[in-house]
Amino acid sequence: MAKSLATARQTTIVVVETRSGVTGIGEAWGMPAVNQAYLPLLASYLEGSDLADVELVFSRILARHYHFGVQNQMMACISGIDIAAKDALGKEIGLPVCRLIGGRGSEHVPVYASGGYITEDNARDFTPQLEAIAAGKHRAVKIKIGLGPASDLARVREARHVLGEDIDLMVDINSNYSLDLAKHTLAALAPHRIGWVEEPLAPQDIAGYEVLQRCSPVPVATGEALYTVHDFQRLLERRAVDVVQPDLSLCGGFWQGRRIADLAELHHVRLSPHVWGSGIGLAAAAHYVASRSPSPQAQDAPWPTLVEYDVGANPLREQLFKQPLVAKDGLLPVPPGPGLGIELDWSAVEKYALR
């Protein structure tokens, strides 16, 4: 991304086990060592609780430890535990998670291909990435920009050249710009029919987002670095965004994810969950989107709710499952089995586990 180059991925797998032997799996964003440090504290509240009561326990934890705040790794841990608890509960009663949290509105959810990454050699690497995306027949695509207005325009022009004019094209700045720079680059990009600009500003700059949303010729999206419905409330009550992007692995799992989606619906703002980790988070996002109607639309949604589908090489998505989740022609199947409907290959987990 524009802020830095990454050489590895990491995330934390969470396992919940019931006394009857049912297990559920979830994903907590962030470094496993930091997440594990919170385990004794959280376990002291959760062990012995009923699966259906975990949200009450989470509320108790936050009330008791209010000095911790919510923008921290503890909330990521709670997120992973919540996803795992919903997976286990679904398995216990024989229902997919989407039906536990709202219903099964579809057998497939639309995705956008997240790619076009910034590399050490953009001149060599960018076009082949776009060509691979085109070969995948994706209907919506997001590329990385944020290296300056001239670079942004060149990357968007190349994306349009390779992908065509019919593709919905989004761009992601990863909060690398100040307000004036964001205004400048969006004015240049607007003629290329950009679906949204993601994280043009720092996540904490709510006032800046409010100003930008008022003047931007491109819809503004953000939310992957926000925690709980309270962060999103500050953004939405000022009408500072057009698309909210909660990440279930850090925002508070389905517990807070449902509240965020309800809040967005009340403000008539679009939803599109961020996914950047393992296939567990992808499965959770698929159930999340399948459980909701694309309000205010009924059956015909001009811009459907999209799940982020990273097309970069990612063994944590491609190799951890016995049957990986794979998008085809812009659609991702919602796993039909109980819980999340996924099964980990524990030998693959062992292969990639940190030592």
From TrEMBL:
Q: Which UniProt keywords apply?
A: Lyase
UniProt keyword annotation of Lyase present: yes
Annotated ranges, domain Mandelate racemase/muconate lactonizing enzyme C-terminal: 123-219
UniProt KW Lyase keyword: yes
Q: Which GO terms describe its molecular function?
A: lyase activity
SUPFAM superfamilies from the UniProt entry: Enolase C-terminal domain-like (SSF51604), Enolase N-terminal domain-like (SSF54826)
Give the GO terms filed under biological process for this record. Answer: amino acid catabolic process
Note the superkingdom of the native organism: Bacteria
Identify the InterPro entries for this entry: DgoD-like (IPR034593), Enolase-like_C_sf (IPR036849), Enolase-like_N (IPR029017), Enolase_C-like (IPR029065), Mandel_Rmase/mucon_lact_enz_CS (IPR018110), Mandelate_racemase_C (IPR013342), Mandelate_racemase_N_dom (IPR013341)
Entry's PANTHER family? D-GALACTONATE DEHYDRATASE, D-GALACTONATE DEHYDRATASE-RELATED
The protein depicted here goes by the name Mandelate racemase/muconate lactonizing enzyme family protein
